[in-house]
Amino acid sequence: MKVYKIPEATVMRLSVYSRYLHQLLEDGIDTISSGEIARGVGVSSAQVRKDLAYFGEFGTRGVGYKVEELYGHLMKILGLDHRWNIILVGAGKLGSALALYRGFADRGFNICTILDVDKDRIGSRLGDIEIESIELIKEKVRKYKISIGVVAVPAPAAQDVTDQLISAGVKAILNFSPRVLQVPNDVVLRNVDLSVHLEVLSFNLALDK
């Protein structure tokens, strides 16, 4: 699995910062300090400055940051200054919810093809997209120049689907299945296991008992 020098936690915070700055733009706010950003997203001002320092110098000492300018920098750093085509594999309940979630498109992620193995689902539609057979995976990746694959299949099928995506040329995978996947060093893998987040919550609740 590909590993980068910038801490993943920093990248996640940059995403939060960008969303907060977008809210400020909608509210008509022109400038902001690191302390105000920190209070808005729930971290320290030192953390904000440290995260931004990985990518250069922003803002003016004693004045702060121009919101629109900083937002533009963060969108470029996050690769959100252009659109990414996505292939979604798995059209069950989770896959359907992901396919219909409008927030992806708002951030530049375009789900352009949905594949499944269930013959009862193939041919039906999720929004504007027709569900097609997973046998078309290589054709679809090539046709739409897919950058990111989303795996929303049951755990037993997740590794096989991931292998097919990689074989088709996909270099970044978002895994929603509760299975640890194996990928080559040149592939970026991100796991989203909702039960893990619930377990973190239960851990914190248990500490308070």
Oligomer: single chain
Cα Rg:
20 Å
Give me the side-by-side strand order of the main sheet: 5-6-4-3-7-8-9
SSE order, one letter for each helix or strand: HEHHEHEHHEEEHEHEEH
**Strand residue percentage:** 15-25%
Overall domain count = 2
CATH topology of the largest domain: Rossmann fold
Low-confidence stretches: none
CATH architecture of the largest domain: 3-Layer(aba) Sandwich
SS elements, strand count = 9
Q: Distance between termini?
A: 39 Å
Overall mean pLDDT score? 93
* Structural class computed from helices and strand pairing: alpha/beta
Shape: globular
Q: For the record, what is the CATH homologous superfamily label of the largest domain?
A: NAD(P)-binding Rossmann-like Domain
Counted by DSSP, the helix tally is 9
Helix proportion range: 40-55%
CATH class of the largest domain: Alpha Beta
Largest sheet: 7 strands, mixed
Give a structural overview.
Helix 8 links the parallel strand 7 (148-151) and strand 8. The strands form two sheets. A seven-stranded mixed β-sheet has the order 5-6-4-3-7-8-9. A two-stranded antiparallel ribbon has the order 1-2. It is α/β, with parallel strands linked by helices and 209 residues long. The protein contains nine helices and nine strands. Helix 1 (8-26) runs antiparallel to helix 4, helix 2 (34-41) crosses helix 3 and helix 7 (137-144) crosses helix 8 (155-168). The protein has two domains: 8-77, Winged helix-like DNA-binding domain superfamily/Winged helix DNA-binding domain (Arc Repressor Mutant, subunit A), CATH 1.10.10.10; 84-196, Rossmann fold. The mean pLDDT is 93. It is globular. Helix content is 45%, strand content 18%.
